[in-house]
Prior knowledge:
Keywords: Membrane, Transmembrane, Transmembrane helix. Residues 106-169 form the DUF6534 domain. This protein is mostly helical. It has one domain (5-182). It is 83% helix and 0% strand. It is globular and about 65 Å long.
Amino acid sequence: xxxxxxxxxxxxxxxxxxxxxLYGIVTAQAYFYWWASQEDSSLxxxxxxxxxxxxxxxxxxxxYMSYYYTIIKFGNFEGIAQTTxxxxxxxxxxxxATCCLGLSGFxxxxxxxxxxxxxxxxxxxxxxxxxxxxxxxAYIINTGALSMCVSMTIIATFWIPALxxxxxxxxxxxxQSKRARFS
Length: 183
């Protein structure tokens, strides 16, 4: 058991705060899409609104979870060990989460390699175009690698015994779920 409350929920609380900031970015994207894409079909616009509503519910769960652990159960190690219903709603189970994160990391690599392959095979031989293709490939590698590293970090913070008692993996999982909206 960690020696202090800070070690137990510090990383978790910071991660939830970052996830809430990312929610603000998603909200801004949805807002700008709504006003800039009046010509899109009703179905597509409804899907964007639906995703935003689900994202809003997820963020409210995260806010309650943070409130529960930092205010309601403040300083109470036994209370922090209890899982609030919103934590269960955002992260179904440890096995499911591990499988999903492993698959997420694998898919990030697969998508990155397929994008790089198609960009590489579509080079034209013109210097300006090939420079743009190289820039896009570097961007794809960097974002895919970052996403995969976050997924693997979440798995590591969950399964490593020294970190398992901390709630850091839960907060990182919330960040990862927000990051998926930007892909």
